[in-house]
Amino acid sequence: MPLTFELCPGRMIGGSNPCFIIAEIGQNHQGDVEIAKKMIKMAKDCGADCAKFQKSELECKFNKKALERPYNSKHSWGKTYGEHKRHLEFSHEQYRELQKYATEVGIFFTASGMDEMAVEFLHELNVPFFKVASLDANNFPYLENTAKKGRPMVVSSGMQSMETMRRVYQTVKQHNENFTILQCTSAYPLEAEDVNLRVITEYQKEFPDIPIGYSGHEIGISISVAAVAMGAKVVERHVTLDKTWKGNDHSASLEPAELAELVRSIRLVERAMGTGIKQMLPCEKPCHDKLGKSVVAKVKIPKGTVLTLDMLTVKAAEPMGVRAEVIFQLVGKSVTQDIDEDESVVPEMVEGYSKSFRSS
C-alpha cells in the first residue's frame, strides 16, 4: 500500500507532499446556498485545499422516531429533529450548484456521506474522495461498500478504540489502497486534555503504509499545527463565518482569520521540518566564522614539543584554528614551530595532522 497517493486530481498526499487542509463547512451554512458559496470562497481565499460539506439522505440515516422526536435546543431550526435536519440539508440540485461554484473558484469539493444512499449520490456527483465521519467508522457494511467504489477515502476515528480501527484498516484495505485515517475526538468544543495527539504516533506504528492525519474540534489553531509537526498529512477543521451563529458546531469552528492563520502556520511548520540530517548549514557560517571556537595555546609551546592536553584550551579565536571537537586528536603530536601563548593552533603547526581536519 502507498504512503503517498493522489487524493484529488493532481494533488498527492503523504510523504513529503504538503499537508492537505480540509475546510469542513459541514452544516454551518445555516441551510442557505448563498452562505455556503461565501464559505467555499472563504476557504479558497484562506488557502485551504478542499471545501467539505455533510450529505445525508435523512430517512436512510435516521429511523422514523429519531426524526419525530422534539428538538427544543437553542440551535434548533424546527420543532422536531427531522424538521431541523431538513432545514439544513441541501438537495441534489443544490449540491451540483455548489460543486460547480467550487470548480469556478478553484477549490476541491466533497462531502461526508452520512449514510449509504448519500455515498451513492456523492459517487454519482464524482467527488474526488469520500470522507467517512467518525459516527460511521464502526459501520463495517458501510465501510466495505464505500471502499469498493474505488475512490480515495479519508476516515475519521472519533469514539473508536484501537481494536476497532485495526478492523477499519483491514476492511478498507481489502478493497481500496488509497485511504488515510485521522485521529479525532468527537467533542464540540474539544478540551486540550482530550485531544490525544499521541494517537497520531500510535497510528503511524500500527498502519505504517498509509498517511495519518488529524481532525480537530478544539478552540484555536495551536493543537492542529502541532499535529502537523507530529506528522499529520491531512488536517480537517470546521469553519464558520461567525461563531455566534445558531448551530452546535460554530463555537468549535475557525473564522476566516483563524483559518488563514492555520494555513500559514502549517506551511511555516512544513518549511521548518527539514531533512532530519544534522549538519552545519550555510546559513550558520556567519555565526560560526564570528563566534565558533577552536584550539588555542594555553601556554607558550616551543617547536618540537609533544602536545599534552594541559597545553591547550578552546576559545573564539582569530584566525580560527583546529576545530574544538578534535582537540583530543592533537595530544601526542609534535608542533612544527614555536607557538605563542594564546595563539591559534592551526593544522600546519602540528606534525602529521591531516589537512582534512582543517576548520571550514
Question: Can you tag this structure with a few keywords?
Answer:
eight-stranded parallel beta sheet, N-acetylneuraminate-9-phosphate synthase, two-stranded antiparallel ribbon, 360 residues, Type Iii Antifreeze Protein Isoform Hplc 12, N-acylneuraminate-9-phosphate synthase activity, 12 strands, PseI/NeuA/B-like_N, alpha/beta, 2 domains, SAF, TIM Barrel
Protein topology:
Elements: E1 5-8, E2 11-13, E3 20-26, H1 33-46, E4 50-55, H2 58-61, H3 64-68, H4 81-88, H5 92-105, E5 108-113, H6 116-125, E6 130-132, H7 140-148, E7 153-156, H8 162-173, E8 179-184, H9 198-206, E9 212-216, H10 222-229, E10 234-238, H11 256-273, H12 285-291, E11 293-297, E12 312-316
Parallel strand pairs: 3-4, 3-10, 4-5, 6-7, 7-8, 8-9, 9-10
Antiparallel strand pairs: 1-2, 11-12
Helix pairs in contact: 1-5, 1-11, 7-8, 10-11
Could you describe the 3D structure shown?
With 360 residues, the protein is an alpha/beta fold. The chain folds into two domains: 13-273, TIM Barrel; 282-349, Type Iii Antifreeze Protein Isoform Hplc 12. Helices cover 33% and strands 16% of the residues. The strands form three sheets. An eight-stranded parallel sheet has the order 5-4-3-10-9-8-7-6. Helix 1 runs parallel beside helix 5, helix 1 runs parallel beside helix 11 (256-273) and helix 10 packs parallel to helix 11.
